Amino acid sequence: VLLFVKFDVLWRYFAWCNQTLSVFTFWAITVCLAKAGKNYWVSLVPGLFMTYVCATYICVAPEGFTIPQTISHCIGFEMFHSSPWNLRSIPWNLHSSLWNIEHIGESGIKIRLIK
């Protein structure tokens, strides 16, 4: 099936998926840093920016929703605005039944999955 799709269209989907993955990675790192009491702004600012960019692109792109550009920017800004940038309001025990952070040190974070 992929052989029948034009490469430029396939490449745009790949690029958007790659950028969207970076958004989720930035948010996961931000939450881990905030929970550890570290400086989480280093991942929060790029996460907010990439959330805006990815949301705006998928709204305005021809392979996305093809919404007019002004409305797409409004949607992107709303995604940026409604992002969990106030990390103090996140209920930290929300996913405690799935994993447990055992150790946070200089070598990294050790996460134990709960079965």
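That was protein one. Protein two is written in the same sequence-then-structure order:
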Amino acid sequence: MTQATAIIDFSIPAMRLLEKLPEHVRAEVIYGKLYILSHPTLHHARLVTRISRELVNHVEDNNLGEVFSSNVGVFLVEGRNSVAPDIVYIGSSNPKQKMPLFTS
């Protein structure tokens, strides 16, 4: 679990809150509250790397989808909540998985 270093209450949707922050700021929006996150410790980063490696191997070996382990925002509850998990798995049956990562 990540620790919040500041909490600010806003009444605008998560996407609009996050758009106002500099890109390097790690933040989550949960039920309209903005949580500015501290950077993970070396121990935390080491564990995330190990778990991610095992998950990637399993998902790729079995053609199950994709795994992301950094800077992937996840919007929940119709865009009202945005979290930044350490690892994100998107199953191959999920329509979002088929979206291009980059558009021109």
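The CA atoms of residues 12 and 32 lie 7 Å apart. Keep this in mind for the problem set.
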